[in-house]
Specification:
With 528 residues, the protein is α+β, with helices and mostly antiparallel strands. The protein folds into 2 domains: 264 residues, D-Maltodextrin-Binding Protein, domain 2; 226 residues, Dipeptide-binding Protein, Domain 3 (Dipeptide-binding Protein, domain 3), CATH 3.10.105. It has 12 helices and 23 strands. Strands 2, 9, 10, 11, 12, 13, 14, 15, 18, 19, 20, 21 and 22 form a 13-stranded mixed β-sheet that branches. Helix 6 runs antiparallel to helix 7 and helix 11 runs antiparallel to helix 12. The longest helix is centred in the first third of the chain and has 20 residues. The protein starts with a helix and ends with a strand. The model has no long low-confidence stretch (mean pLDDT 91).
């Protein structure tokens, strides 16, 4: 009996010691079933604009560089790169063993082909402008050089663009690219390759992707990814609830989900040329204070949002930056009175001509923008300002409002790309379409800071310039930053790996997918 007790004690001790020395180690295997809203049309880095197309393109194609979940750029097809001292030349060396899914080596010719195709207006790529003025040349089979007309530090962000296999595309006329079957049966060099497609008579219902064994950053640990397509968010949610899919993006969900912030700023933009009363800075400051005191983000139910105090996402705001809302000493009524308005008996602000303080807020037919706009109208009325919300379809919003700058006040969101290049949004040269300076803002000091952000500099210098830019911009109040948008990424309970916290496009949730894993082993450390 004593022997049995001793043996049991030793076994118990051994098991507990064993647990202390075991290390969880990722293991290959498993299938991820991802649900996406939409039907793919262009799984092609030249044309992928919609979320569904960008999602698949990010899985099938790879660029010279790849963004990590932490937001850093690492080599992908390129094994290394060099930037000239003047910031105008970028030289990339492609890895010797880089290959496409069909086994063809990736060469400098493929890179040159991809970029020159984008630059050709016949191809009708929406990304043509990103490569305007850039000269690309193959120095040898594995070396490519980009020459910029002037230093532009955010340029390196462009090199995550997926590379096309020139041997498949080069015999097509550029004007025929949009009609190629390879837009739906793509061959790239990314972490996953297409192995089958499930179709109905009218649509594609599912893609099955397999991990690419020769992927440049190592064969992905998850063996396969099934992508299933749904026509509405509601049907996506039903599919998840019934277990048809194991992952997907949701506007709101359980607390255990991974929350990702989009790198975009939703704001109220003032058109001072359309409505002269908005030229008074005190009035704009008064409206600013109303918006900040009302906590717009806290009153939106359709989407998870967070309050913004700057024109860049909160996670990108310099540590030394002081939000403009923290330096306003006057109260709202004092500011509006200084602008020449008087409260009437009906509690509405009036000017000397007894005209009410009023304006129209234009926005797009989007649940988030509509709910935010309705709340803003309510808050303004409570503070004596008459605002009307005018809602446009997406196409009309672009053609009738944004491009001609035909609005008094605009409720709109701007996507801030990696590198925080704010030039297109606020430089005076971008006031007219196709520029993105929709407030038609002009300030020579801001112009100078924006140009400084694009030049070669140390990280410390960059933060200093960005701080100065945001300070001047916010004090002028050409717009009022309101909130950014979050989204919930639901994944299987047995999912392991690092996910990004800040993204520009939904497809960037897959940045680290080659390191994701669903299965693991527990090994002694000496065997790991």
């Amino acid at each position: 009996m004593l022997f049995v007790i001793s043996l049991s004690s030793l076994l118990f001790i051994f098991i507990n010691i064993n647990k202390n020395f075991l290390i969880d180690t990722p293991r290959s295997g498993g299938t991820l079933s991802e649900g996406i809203v939409g039907i793919p049309r262009f799984i092609n880095p030249l044309f992928a604009e919609r979320d569904v197309d960008q999602d698949l393109t990010s899985l099938v194609y790879s660029g010279l560089t790849r963004r990590t979940p932490q937001g850093n750029l690492i080599p992908d097809l390129a094994e290394s790169w060099e930037i000239s001292e003047d910031g105008q030349q970028y030289t990339f060396r492609i890895a010797d063993d880089a290959s496409f899914h069909d086994g063809t080596p990736v060469t400098a010719e493929d890179v040159v082909f991809t970029i020159t195709a984008i630059q050709d207006s016949l191809a009708k790529s929406p990304y043509e402008r990103d490569w305007d003025g850039i000269v690309i040349e193959a120095l040898d089979e594995k070396t490519v050089i980009f020459r910029l007309p002037k230093a532009f530090s955010p340029f390196i962000q462009n090199t995550t663009l997926g590379i096309l296999p020139s041997h498949i595309w080069k015999d097509l006329g550029r004007e025929d690219y949009l009609f190629s079957r390879y837009n739906l049966t793509p061959i790239g060099s990314g972490p996953y390759e297409v192995v089958s497609t499930n179709r109905s008579p009218s649509n594609i219902n599912k893609y099955t992707l397999r991990s690419f064994k020769n992927y440049q950053l190592g064969r992905p640990l998850i063996d396969s990814v099934d992508i299933l397509f749904f026509d509405t968010q509601e049907n996506l949610e039903r599919a998840y609830a019934s277990g048809i899919i194991s992952s997907g993006l949701f506007e709101s969900s359980d607390d255990d989900d991974h929350i990702i912030t989009f790198s975009e700023t939703f704001a109220l933009f003032f058109n001072q040329t359309k409505l002269p009363s908005l030229q008074d800075k005190d009035l704009r400051k008064g409206i600013y204070k109303i918006m900040k005191d009302s906590e717009i983000a806290e009153n939106i139910s359709t989407t998870t949002t967070e309050t913004l105090n700057s024109f860049v996402p909160t996670k990108n705001t310099p540590k030394d930056h002081t939000p403009f809302s923290d330096v306003i000493d006057e109260d709202t009524e004092e500011l509006i009175e200084e602008a020449g308005w008087t409260k009437g008996e009906d509690n509405i602000w009036k000017n000397k001509q007894s005209e009410s303080l009023s304006f129209t807020i234009s926005t797009a037919d989007n649940p988030l923008l509509i709910e935010a706009g309705q709340h803003i109208v309510k808050v303004l009325k409570e503070n004596g300002i008459v605002a009307k919300l005018e809602i446009f379809s997406s196409d009309d919003f672009l053609q009738q409002v944004i491009r001609p700058r035909n609005f008094e006040v605009l409720l709109f969101g701007q996507q801030i790309n990696h590198g925080l290049d704010l030039y297109g949004f606020w430089h005076s040269s971008q006031r007219n379409d196709p520029g993105l300076n929709i407030a038609q803002y002009t300030n020579l000091d801001v112009n100078k800071e924006l140009e400084g952000l694009r030049g070669p500099q140390t990280p410390e210098e960059y933060q200093e310039v960005l701080t100065n830019l945001l300070t001047v911009l916010e004090e002028d109040i050409p717009a009022i930053p309101l909130f950014s948008r979050n989204i919930h990424y639901t994944l299987p309970e047995d999912f392991f790996s690092t996910l990004p916290n800040l993204i520009v496009y939904p497809s960037e949730r897959f940045n680290g997918i080659y390191q994701w894993h669903l299965e693991k082993d527990s090994l002694w450390g000496i065997f790991k």
